[in-house]
Amino acid sequence: MTAAITLSNVSKIYNNGTTALQDLNLSVEDGQFVSLLGPSGCGKSTVLRIIAGLGQMSSGTLYWGDDRIKQRLAFVFQEAALMPWATVENNVRLPLKLAGVSQAEATKLVAETLRLVELTGFERAYPRQLSGGMKMRVSIARALVTKPELLLMDEPFGALDEMTRSRLNSDLLALWQQKQWTVVFVTHNIYEAVYLSNRVVVMAARPGRVVADLPIDVPYPRTEAFRTTPSFNAYCRQISAALAEAAEPATAEFS
């Protein structure tokens, strides 16, 4: 497979001297679903922001497998961040408006994307009228309406209840299988990472770096039944052990 993105020896040091990332190496192949997992402060979100061009690395290199991927990426943030004064339809339309897409084409794309995330019929609703899960669906639709090649997701389901989170996990997987995006997904939840991913990349904090890169060799489609299998539990234990190791103090070479 071809690498969609490769980060090579990437470091990020903030102006206050905090080292967010140090010599981080990560490659994500076309069509993979990769989750970044690690303690708070390990630089997971910083990695996404560097890939998206929302933050600059202090040193290192970001390679793109294809310029088309760089030009067609979308970012889903932890908070839905919807415009409260705008309808669902107009929230989803925003990136198309900014890109100068014609009104007729935008209307078609918005309708198509709302069907994709099961929000047909809520076009005229306002964010205050929606549940947390529905707001996140709108946020995802706003990202998908531009037909991205690469989807960056920063703990999009972290604030949701477990039932809603589980449903959106399954819906996201179904969409990913249908559209074959490359996905980099940040989460704190081991169970979510195992359920969704081809690979789970475990990061350690202070300084942020990759300490484990674990393949999840279970075929798709995955159903809720997968969550109760011995292999699911084994992967969760393996990642939990890697996280425990990641929580240990950094060695002298990073001090």
TrEMBL record:
**This chain belongs to which protein, by name?**
ABC transporter ATP-binding protein
Q: Does the keyword Nucleotide-binding apply?
A: yes
- What SMART domains does the record tag this protein with? AAA
Please report the record's description of how this protein sits within the membrane: Peripheral membrane protein
Family annotation (CDD domains): ABC_NrtD_SsuB_transporters
Which terms are listed as keywords in the entry?
ATP-binding, Nucleotide-binding, Transport
Q: Taking the first listed entry, what is the main subcellular location of this protein, grouped into a coarse class?
A: membrane
Task: Report the GO terms under cellular component.
Answer: plasma membrane
> What Pfam families does the record tag this protein with?
ABC_tran
Query: Where would I find the ABC transporter domain in this sequence?
Result: 5-230
User: Which Gene Ontology molecular function entries are recorded, alphabetically?
Assistant: ATP binding; ATP hydrolysis activity
Query: Please, which domain of life does this record's source organism belong to?
Result: Bacteria
Compartments in which it is found = Cell inner membrane
Q: Which InterPro entries match?
A: AAA+_ATPase, ABC_transporter-like_ATP-bd, ABC_transporter-like_CS, ABC_transporter_ATP-bind, P-loop_NTPase
Is the Nucleotide-binding keyword given for this protein? yes
Q: Which organism is it from?
A: Pegethrix bostrychoides GSE-TBD4-15B
Give the family this protein belongs to, as stated in its UniProt record. Answer: Belongs to the ABC transporter superfamily. Nitrate/nitrite/cyanate uptake transporter (NitT) (TC 3.A.1.16) family.
